[in-house]
Amino acid sequence: MSILVTPQGVYKLYQFDTEKEFERCVVSQVEMIFGKRCVYLDCKRRIGKQGTKQSVPDAYLIDFSSQREPKLFIVETEIASHDLFQHIGVQILQFAHSFASAPRQVKQLLFDEISKDTKVYEACDGYAQEYGLRNVDNMLDHLVNDTFRALIIIDEATDELYKVVKNFRFPVEVIEVETYQGARGDHIYRFTPLLKDVSDVKESIEEREQRPVDIAEFDTIVVPAREDGFQETFLGENRWYAIRIHASMIAQIKYIAAYRVAPVSAITHWALVKNIEPWQDTGKFVVNFAEPAKEIGPVPLVPKSKVKALQNARYTSFDRLQKAKSLDEVF
Questions:
Q1: Same domain, yes or no: 251 and 155
Q2: What angle do CA 69, 30, 197 make, to 5 degrees?
Q3: What is the pLDDT, as a whole number, of residue 213?
Q4: How confident is the model at residue 70 (pLDDT cuts 50, 70, 90)?
Q5: Which of 2, 24, 43, 322 is disulfide-compatible with 13, CB 3.0–4.6 A?
């Protein structure tokens, strides 16, 4: 069993008995998990065409973090001890079917929920104006006619979960929320906020008072590569695996670049992406190249700069990569 040691004492990993108990904890941390530019609608109402099998999502999330367009996620909150195929696989497919068969119903449901809270309505109306949309009604039209996206919030992201998720043909994000309980019954939580590792790449640009790159503009994934893997796989096999990539980002990725770790410490090659496929049952992906990698730069790491040596995959735009003289100008 995992434990966390803090100045306030030892906290042990807490196992939930029911989905409802876990969901209450998630709702208590909504702003931390999703950020301030998201609206979480905690409502359970049936959706789907009359006369067909209807479904009841746990919640809806409208994500306004992109400067180009908002995104809607249908939320399923689950605990790993349940049958994940039935509780997640089947339910999310039903959500997708209901979403496609009754978009006007979904739109009305969202409008009703948003309208219940004046502050939520005003926030959504303000975001709609930012996107050049007339009002909330117009924004919801856009959302329900956009790509179906699902968000799974679970207490443990197991291999079994990723076996289920890899079969979906639409974006599915997974957020693992671990709960630890102290001797007094108090809780602390461990999770990675939604798309946090994507948006974090803007930090050094913001500090230089430049306009931050919008998540919607990211079309390139940069991966750290050791020399043997770089030579054998990136150059030799025209592919790279096993990479953690957000499902919502896959459709945007058109290029991949290799950051070769020390002693090279620079981005030296890039390739056009042919496709991105699930890598076994790991929740990770393999990026297959459309053609052999080409040289670039090199684009070096600057010692003692804001951007550190890459430890994990990061996102940027190909235009920014081509113009960069150092990693500070890439991210």
A1: no
A2: 60
A3: 52
A4: very high
A5: 2
Residue 91: its H or E element: helix 91-101
| Number of domains the chain contains | 2
Determine how β-strand 71-78 pairs with β-strand 150-154. Answer: parallel
Let me know whether 115 and 261 are in one domain.
no
Using the CB atoms, write b or e for 250-266: b if 16+ within 10 Å. bebbebbbbbbbeebbb
Q: Rounded CA gap, 92 and 246, in Å?
A: 18
Angstrom distance (rounded) from CA 2 to CA 182: 13
Q: Are residues 187 and 75 in the same domain?
A: yes
pLDDT digits (tens, 9 = 90+) for 170-207: 999 999 999 999 999 999 999 988 877 675 544 433 44
- The sign one gets for the Cα dihedral 16, 21, 26, 28 is negative
Beta bridge partners of 63: 38, 71
Q: Give per-residue pLDDT as tens, 18-33.
A: 999 999 999 999 999 9
What is the spatial distance between Cα 128 and Cα 115, in angstroms, rounded to a whole number?
14
In a shared domain, residues 239 and 321: yes
Please provide the average confidence, as pLDDT, over all residues in the chain.
90
Cβ–Cβ < 8 Å for 44, 56: yes
Question: CA 287, 263, 290: angle at the middle one, nearest 5?
Answer: 20
- What are the two backbone dihedrals, phi and then psi, of residue 316, each rounded to the nearest 5 degrees? -160, -175
In DSSP terms, which residues pair with 143 in a beta bridge?
none
In a shared domain, residues 19 and 165: yes
Confidence grade of residue 247 (pLDDT, cut at 50, 70, 90): confident
What CATH number does the domain containing 288 carry?
3.10.590
Q: Which residue range is the domain that position 13 belongs to? A: 3-194
pTM of the model: 0.82
42 and 69 in a single domain? The answer is yes
Looking at the predicted structure, is the pLDDT value of residue 210 above 50?
Answer: no
Tokens linked to 302: 């600057």
**What residue has token string 């695996």?**
241
